[in-house]
Amino acid sequence: MIKLNDLENLAKKYRHDLFEKLLLIKQGHPGSIFSMMDIVVSMYHGGFIRFDKKKNEFLDKVLISKGHATAALYPILRDFGVLPASEWNNWGHKESLLRVFGNTSIPGIDITSGSLGHCIGSGAGMAISYKRKNQDKKVYVIISEGELYEGSTWEALLFAKHNELDNLIIVIDINSLIILGNTKDCLNLEPIKSKIQGLGIKTSEINGHNFNELITAFESVQKSNELNCILAKTIKGKGSSIMENKKNWHYWNPMNEDEIKKTREELS
Amino acid sequence: MFQRDIFIQEIIKKLETDKSIYFLSADFGAPALDILRDRFPNNFIHCGISEQAMLDIASGLALDGNNVFVYAMAPFLSLRAIEQAKCGPGLMKLPVCLISVGVGLGYADAGPTHYSTEDFSCFRSIVGSSVFTPSDVSTTKLIAQEMLNNPKFSYVRLDREILPNHQSETTANDYKKGYKIYGSIDDKKIIYISHGKMFHKCMELFLKEKDKFCCIDIFKSKPFPKQLATDLATSKVLIVVDEQSPSGNLSSCVHEGLSKLNVFPKIISKSLPEKYIFENGGRKYLLDKFGLSTNDLLEASKEIIK
Asked: Would you call A115 and B45 a contact, using CB atoms and an 8 Å cutoff?
């Protein structure tokens, strides 16, 4: 079993790797990537996404509904050997397979996403297919809280609950920021927990940067025979004081040498 | 028999041996669907009145290797869920077949919220889609069989009414071409091109005066049937009839398809007007009132002769 300290170090390393890449390509969504980094590191390196070493593929599916943050998976997939290191190194070149938004042509990426509000539905479709075929597979869907503004998200939650999709695990990355500001100021979503619980979905609330809480939450949902939703409270741009809780760091921004140096130090 | 029942019956037959087929409904029924639900409950999914989620669910099922059919009233399946169709079966090239029922003014008693007079132009603009509009039983069956044996992203436009059969059935060879010609194409004849219910109006004229008219039933409009350009290479004027709004309808499709192949006949478009229709009176009354009566089509031919 991997130690919590190791997970923390991996997440830091991946943030650093991704920062260097985004700095190079001068695009991407670091705020959103960094807010969910600890979540995906826990899922993959915590052993919750089962890996078949012989086939070099994951047994369970991970759908990043907040497609602008799919790049968070690239260094993880690289380290598992699913994504060739050459592809990672090639990112930023015209003929590169990797893009800011993920798609199914990239090894290890299970869905083409980018437009918000699609993946609970797609995940529910996969999950119901596995259940009806009696296949032991789980589907993890990570959405941003901003996707709670999309009607299709709620349609799909109703569907998932009605069909008791206990092999579907929904994680909501709640970093409280959307492009124009704080969600509570733009259009309040709270109380998110009671709204989702109100649908009859088992809902837990954790600190999305606390590895102990993350591992405990994933252990719990794995043992559960109910549809589960984890509300992970996070910080947009986590790890970089320049980016943390800054709405303008949803996208990449130009940085001066001092800012680059400072961010490198913080992520090292 | 209703086109939807014909289509679903073909799915039922295939389900006997192929359990990878899933049929999703957004609370839309049919007598044949009752049979499907009863006999194959594991292959039916009720998605609620949630066309958007239904398309996303369909994409998830298709990503697991299933052949998925989604089924709803045309205006809601097409326009409400069009972005889901793009991002799922479109972007990921998934075998999802949208069965869209009640195209045109099919729901004439319900009013413009229920009319589907834009779906043709919308769906033919989605990259990777195939678009079908059958006018009879034999073609409906052949389309269903193709979607079952060669699953792909497709949009099938069915009429709400029972449409009469033609004198001869669509053959495998006709189907392969994507259209069927009634009568012969020559310079002296007026050529009508249409699909679905409106094709029957063209056929009324043809059956009365076979020496004056030729009718082409273009049941597969996307991809555009290339051979049609060869057949129409010397044609000077075409009357294209579609129960859709004026922009992007079948006449646009025919114009684009032929011009890409360097065939440039004059195209007279007979379609619905650029307005939302609130009038009562039923479909026939509305078609007659808004320029799509058989007599209107005949008048268009007289203009050409003049």
From this structure: no
